[in-house]
Sequence to fold (227 residues):
Amino acid sequence: MVVAMNPRVVIDGLFAGQVARLAGDSRSSAIVKTPVSGRRLLTADGLTGDTQADRRVHGGGGKALHHYPAEHYALLAAAFPDAQHLMSGGLGENISTRGLTEHDVCIGDVFRLGGARIQVSQPRAPCWKIDHRTACEGVAAFIAEHGLAGWYYRVLEAGEVAAGDWLEHLERPADAVSLDEFWRVTRMPRPSIDALSRLANASGLDPQWVGKLTQRVGWLRDNGSEI
Fold:
């Protein structure tokens, strides 16, 4: 079910980071972000001054900008009281807001952010770096289980953005799929073919996700069962 959403919210924080070796680890990441002051150019490749260690899974195209709802941090802190960096910008997001969550936002939603126009393309897939960043095992799994990962945007029109700008909702596809529905269906052990097909056909969904879902639908149809 898609619920009514706030027509616009304020960007409380804008964050960027550089690739660096993770503390106590040989691997590198740009999950450590710091607040950006002033205006930054947002293009199809992402936010100026923000980098990614692995462009296969972060940045550019359908992952140019990561949005994380600030209200999720209270839920994470309650579940993991010893976890570190549970504050806006702490999990590698580029923008932070209050008033929009996965229950409100749909795949394909178009927003105006400062001078840029952006479109929701896919949810974030939580990975091991979240546990490393928070110094707490199980945070990433909890985020995935409860659909608290935030989401990515593609950039339709480049423009300058800053903390304090409005994020204003402009368009929503017909028969839109909320991010909450997307999470629930993709994590079901036995989703229906119709439910998966609805997700695969969601307007604005990143092509990689379309391919994954279409492949799963095909398997189900060929095998006459659901997994």
In short: The chain has six helices and 14 strands. The first helix runs from residue 72 to 79. The helical segments are 72-79, 128-134, 139-146, 179-186, 193-200, 207-223.
